[in-house]
Every structure is written in structure tokens, then in C-alpha cells.
Amino acid sequence: MTGRTEWPGDSPDSSRAEKELSPQDPAERARAICLRLLTGTPRTRRQLADALRKREIPDDVAEEVLARFEDVGLIDDAAFADAWVESRHHGRGLARRALARELRTKGIDPGLVQEAVGQLDSEQEEATARELVARKLRATRGLDRDRRLRRLAGMLARKGYPEGMALRVVRQALEAEGEATDGLEEGY
Asked: What CA–CA distance (Å, rounded) separates 122 from 43?
């Protein structure tokens, strides 16, 4: 025994350099790349396809491997999108618009994006916006009303909340603190 892990096909006298220089079956390489990438975190089909393309796996081989991974359930873009929405909405407070943008950049089909973000209704989204504002409200005390409004509404906007909802939630939070909010509609 040589002290290193031996894999099927390894001979005791083969060196690592020889293994790296010898051509390997592209389908086997593609499977190994996909399995390694899926081990750490779930990935979309497009993310895996991009990784295979970057490693110069022929497109036909990549397509065959990715199709097989989908068939056996190792790649499931719908499940990925659902989990992403659940995690990012509850963990980071992202709104439907921001979640849809993130899913599109990950290569999720537009129909699956709509289904996944459709899990969140307007009431849930608004409740999350209220929680975010409540957490941030204390840090804005001592600032003038307009600056507080801009900071809080800006925070919600960066998380993808619609402008009308953001302003309504911030205005209500400021009113609950006793802040006068007359005239806010015109300038904001």
C-alpha cells in the first residue's frame, strides 16, 4: 500500500502528474465536476452547464450528463427556486422583485421563477417590510424626518420592495413613533 487513496483504474506505479496529463472520458469528467459542485450547495442546471463549458466539456456530453442528473433528481430547478425564495425572503427579507431577479441570474426558467415568487403574497411581503423597518427604525432616531424616510425607504427599495409599499410602511412606522408625516406623499 502506498499511503494514498487508490481509485479504480489506479495502478500503484501511476503518478499524479501522469493522471493529470492523460485524457479522461469527457462524460466521466462532467459527472465528477457536477457531483463535486452539487456536494457543497444546490445548483441550477445553468450553473452546472456554465461550469462544464468553462472546463471545456463538449456541449453534447454536458447535455447528456445534465439530462441524466435531472432524471435522477440531482438537478431540480423548481425545488431550487422554491428553497431560494423561502431562504432569502425569511433570512434576508428580500421582496418578490429582488428574488425574481436573483433567480433569473441563476438561469431559472421564467415560469419557474413566477411559481416560486408566487409563494409570497402581498400580505407576507408587507409584514416582512414592517419587520425590517422596525429593526432599522431605532438606528435612525435623532435624524430629521426626511432623512429617516429616505434611509428606511431606500433600505426597502434595495431589497426589492415596491415604492408605494415602502413609503406606506415607513410612513406608518414613523407615525407610530409620533413623527408627523403630513406632506410626505408629494416629495417622495
From this structure: 28
